[in-house]
Design brief:
Strand content: 15-25%
CATH architecture of one domain: 3-Layer(bba) Sandwich
Radius of gyration: 22 Å
Shape: globular
CATH topology of one domain: FAD/NAD(P)-binding domain
Number of helices: 11
Strand order of the largest sheet: 8-7-16-17-18-15-19
Number of strands: 20
Distance between the termini: 25 Å
Length: 411
C-alpha cells in the first residue's frame, strides 16, 4: 500500500454528488481522481443562450437542508434570491384564479403541525384525505406538495417525505441561485481541485475490476487507474449497476420522477407565478429577482409534473404560458425538455427513504455509490450532496481502516 496510485480514491461522475464526494475525500487528505465522460455538472449544468442562464428546468436550493449546510462547510456561499410569491395565481378548470387566503393558511397549518414520523409507511394521498378539506382546499394541498417534491402521483409519494420537504420549504425557504446552478458546479469543482483532487473531463469510466484495496478503474481509452476505494456517482441505479463488479442486491427501487419543462427567456418583466390547482402544472419566474437574464429581461420555467407525450406536454405548457400573459413577441429564447429526470428513484410509501440503497455497496470493501437515489437523508439535491459527502468520507477512511490508522475526519 505504499504506492501513491493505489492509495487514491477514484470518483466516477462529476455531477453534484460526485463533485461533493471528490471534494470531501480530497479535504480528508486522500489523493483523488474524478472522472467525467462529458462536462462537469450533469443535471446541474447551466446553458447560456442570448444572455439567459438556463438551468435544466427549474432548480431551487432548500435553505438550511443537508446541501445548504455541506456547501457552507466546503466554503461555498452562493448568492441567490427567494422566489417571488406575492400575487401568485392558480389555474382551475382552464381559468386563472387567485391563490391565497384561508385555503393556503389551512394547508400551511396542517403541514407545520403534522409529525412526519407519525406518517411513516403511508402515502401522501392518505395524509391529504385525512385533512377533511373541501375540493378546492384539497387541490391547494396537492399543489403545495407538488411544488415541494416535484411529484404528482401522491399515491406513490411517502407521506413522511412530503411532510418533511413541505415543512423545510415553509420554515427555511428556497433560493434561486444567481447565475444558475452552474455556479454551484463551479464552486464544488473549485473546492475539490483546491483540496488537491484531479478532475478529468471527457474521460469515461467503462468498468471496475480487481478487489478490495486494489480496484482497477478502466477508462474508455483503455487506461487503468488503481485505487483503494471507488465512488460511483454516474447517473442512476442502472448506470451504477453497469459499472459495479458485484451485484449490489438492491432489488426493485422504484420508478424515476420525471417532468416536461419549457424554459423561456423573455423581454420585459415576465409573468407572475402560476400554479396548476386541478392540473399538475407550474410556471415560475426565476428572474427577476434572480440574476439569470440581461437587464430588463426575465426568465421563466413552465413545468408539467410527470412527463408523458412530448407533443401533448409542450402544447399544454405553451397554453399555460399564454394564460399567464406570455405572448409570442415576448419570447427571445425558448427550450423544451421533453423528459427531464427530476430524481432517479421514488421510493414506495411502505419503505420511504430508508428503502433507498445505502452508500456502502454490499460485498467487497472499498466500493461506494452516491446520487439523488442513495441514502436515507434528503430529497433531490439534498440527497445527492448528503450521499456524496458520506461516500467521500467513507472512501477516504477505507484506506485508514485497512492500515489500522486513525480514521480521517473532514474539517
Amino acid at each position: 500500500m505504499g504506492n501513491h496510485d493505489n492509495d487514491r480514491v477514484v470518483v466516477i461522475g462529476a455531477g453534484v454528488a460526485g463533485l461533493t464526494a471528490a471534494a470531501t475525500a480530497a479535504r480528508a487528505g486522500r489523493p483523488v481522481v474524478l472522472l467525467e465522460g462529458h462536462e462537469a455538472g450533469g443535471r446541474a449544468r447551466t446553458d447560456q443562450r442570448s444572455g439567459f442562464s438556463f438551468n435544466q428546468g427549474p432548480h431551487a436550493l432548500y435553505r438550511g437542508g443537508p446541501a445548504w449546510r455541506t456547501l457552507r462547510d466546503l466554503g461555498l456561499h452562493l448568492r441567490g434570491h427567494r422566489p417571488p410569491l406575492r400575487g401568485m395565481r392558480g389555474v382551475r378548470a382552464g381559468q386563472v384564479v387567485p391563490v391565497g387566503g384561508r385555503q393556503v393558511a389551512a394547508v400551511v397549518a396542517k403541514l407545520t403541525g403534522a409529525r412526519p414520523s407519525a406518517w411513516a409507511g403511508r402515502s401522501t394521498r392518505e395524509w391529504v384525505d385525512s385533512l377533511g378539506f373541501g375540493r378546492e382546499a384539497v387541490e391547494t394541498a396537492e399543489m403545495m406538495v407538488r411544488v415541494a417534491t416535484y411529484v404528482a402521483d401522491l399515491d406513490r409519494l411517502p407521506a413522511d417525505l412530503a411532510l418533511r420537504q413541505g415543512r423545510q420549504g415553509l420554515v427555511h425557504g428556497v433560493s434561486y441561485l444567481d447565475g444558475g446552478w452552474g455556479t454551484l458546479v463551479e464552486g464544488l469543482a473549485g473546492a475539490a481541485t483546491r483540496a488537491g483532487a484531479t478532475l478529468r473531463r471527457h474521460t469515461e469510466a467503462r468498468s471496475i475490476t480487481g478487489g478490495p484495496a486494489d480496484w482497477h478503474v478502466v477508462t474508455a481509452e483503455g487506461e487503468t487507474l488503481h485505487a483503494t476505494a471507488v465512488v460511483v456517482a454516474a447517473g442512476g441505479p442502472a448506470a451504477a449497476r453497469k459499472l459495479l463488479p458485484v451485484d449490489p442486491h438492491w432489488g426493485e427501487l422504484g420508478a424515476p420522477v420525471t417532468a416536461a419543462c419549457l424554459d423561456l427567456g423573455l423581454r420585459g418583466p415576465g409573468p407572475k407565478v402560476v400554479f396548476g390547482l386541478d392540473v399538475p402544472w407550474y410556471l415560475s419566474r426565476h428572474c427577476p429577482p434572480g440574476d439569470l437574464a440581461p437587464e430588463g429581461s426575465a426568465l421563466a420555467h413552465v413545468l408539467r409534473y410527470g412527463a408523458r407525450d412530448a407533443r401533448a406536454d409542450r402544447a399544454e405548457l405553451v397554453d399555460l404560458a399564454r394564460m399567464a400573459g406570455v405572448r409570442d413577441e415576448h419570447i427571445v429564447e425558448d427550450r423544451f425538455l421533453a423528459h427531464m429526470v427530476v430524481t432517479h428513484v421514488l421510493p414506495s410509501p411502505e419503505r420511504g427513504l430508508a428503502g433507498r440503497p445505502p452508500v456502502v455497496v454490499p460485498g467487497p470493501g472499498g466500493l461506494f455509490v452516491a446520487g439523488d437515489w442513495v441514502g436515507d437523508r434528503g430529497w433531490l439535491a439534498d440527497a445527492a450532496v448528503a450521499s456524496g459527502r458520506s461516500a467521500g468520507l467513507l472512501a477516504a477512511e477505507f484506506r485508514a481502516t485497512l492500515q489500522g490508522d486513525d480514521p480521517v475526519r473532514v474539517a
